[in-house]
Amino acid sequence: MFRFSPYVLKNLWRHRTRSLLTVSGAAVALLVFCFVAAVQDGLDEVVRDPRAERTLVVFQENRFCPTTSRLPQDYARQIAKLGGVSDVLPLQVFTNNCRASLDVIVFHGLPAEKLRAARELHLVAGDWAEFEGRRDAALVGAAVAGRRKIAVGRQFSIGEVSVHVAGIFASPSPADENLIYTHLEFLQRAQGAGAVGQVTQLEVHVTDGADPDAVAAAIDDAFHAGPAATTTRRKGVFLLSTLADVIDLVRFARWLGYACIGLVLSLVATTTVMAVQDRVRQHALLETLGMRPGRLFRLIVSESLLVCLVGGVAGTGLALAALGWSGLGVGVEGITFAFRPSLALGLTGLGISALVGLVAGIFPAWQATRTRIVDALRNG
Q1: What does the domain layout of the chain look like in residue ranges?
Q2: What is the pTM of this model?
Q3: Per-residue model confidence as pLDDT tens digits over 311-345
Q4: Burial class (CB in 10 A: 0-12, 13-18, 19+), 125
């Protein structure tokens, strides 16, 4: 079929306005589809983290937003004595917005000596020594740094929290790159003297042989009558509960992505039908000269495929570029997830473009091959 490429391109160029509009429509639809898919992928990465099954989150009972949960930091020492617990990480969370936001800033305050072991962070700028040696130092995720134009050595302030940027880090988990890590005590004091000795939550790591649910029940029983009752859940369950509203919204948005695919199918099929109707006589002449119906079928499908692929490549490429450049992420109640480009997302976009192009061309091509040559020459 490659020898017919000039013929296909010439036909598309002859009606270039129509071809351009079809390509543009396909590109916009694939752009939207890729954005919706990126949101879904980012959310799935957070809630399906396999490590979350062996990690418990201890939160204050009947509290939701991190600004309302306050647990005594001493709970960490008491939990560490329970059976089945390998480590306890006290965590102070500060966010400028508990509602869903595309530009939420989330600070995590942890003991500096535990941060390296607890999180997979790779410094792309700055150094650990400065972070560990300076009380108000912070490590800023690459996504936040890119979005807010933050550089090493500068001060960064949100509300009453002002930090010195000691480093910028990348992480295998894109969600972590939307966080800012500080010293636990610094973040406590930044929120007032009353916050010293209190943490937002405790992250409990369970030993391999222990039952996480049994450990969670033991923790809640131990503090049932304490100064602050607790609710302990597996990290995965905690994330699903916190992000429940966003998950429902993303599920609904998925239908928007499917609607975009349907739009591309309808658009390309309509354009192909119009092109076939415009060239009825040409196709009849080609068949008169010896072109078989099967080859004519493939010729028309190739034209549909080409139009859809060009639009798909443009839309998918723009989506991946925008996702990579923007570093967008959503934060909800101190939990973040990122929209990131990926090879799988790009291949999915291109695969859908090719599939839609093939399907959209089948009916017009079948219709063209079923037309009698005499009728085509008479009415073309």
Answers
A1: 2-46+245-379, 62-228
A2: 0.75
A3: 889 999 999 998 888 777 776 766 777 777 888 88
A4: middle
